[in-house]
Every structure is written in C-alpha cells, then in structure tokens.
Amino acid sequence: MQVTAHRYGYSRVVGCSFDEALERTRKTLQQQGFGVQAEINISTALHEKLGVNVPRQVILGACNPQLAHQALEVEPEISLLLPCNVTVRQSGANVEVSVINAEKLMEFAGKPELKPLAVEASRRLQAVLENI
To answer: Residue 93 belongs to what domain range?
Structure first.
C-alpha cells in the first residue's frame, strides 16, 4: 500500500488488524531509532470523559533521542514541539497509520539550523510507514 502525503503528515493504510498495526508501528519506530515516550488512547479517553464513541485511535509520542538532543542544543524551546506524533487509527474496515511531517513542524521555530534534523526525522518517520 502506498504512502499518502497530507497537509502536516503522511499516512498509509495497512493490511492488518488494529492491534497488529499498533504493535508493528511500535516495533518499526524502535528500528528507526525512536522510543515511544507517551501513548494516548484517544478513543478510550473520549469515551471516559465525554461518553462518546469514536473509532479506535492511539497517539504515540515518538522521540529519537539523538535528534531531539541536537534540536534542543540549537533551540531549547523546541521542546514545545517534541515528541513527534504517530497515530494508529481505525478507519472503517481499514487501519491507517500516520506520522507527522517533522519538516513542517520545525518550520515554526524559524531556525535554519534545524532543517537537517527535521529532514532526517521525516526520513525516518516515512521509513516507519514504508516498513510496517
């Protein structure tokens, strides 16, 4: 299945169950040097807090320590834009995995020194989509 570009990220429909997609996403993030620092089950949270039912969706806060450290050295306030979000979402009969476009995200900082780091983070995140 192909990777699709969106306004601020990329996505791919995967041919497996939600739980398998979530596990494969975690594993592939690790292979690309990312650790999952936070996990938010947004569908459960919305059900518990608002009583609404939405399709299953989990947000993974992924961080590559080396890239994050380098970015923080350039711009300490960049921590407001970290970690990189990755989502696994049930979309009808399909499961879609999406990653943030780190290049677009880093544009907010307005620091050209961050561009190579953002390019590398985007490359690795797109590799996650291509390899799950």
So the answer is: 3-127
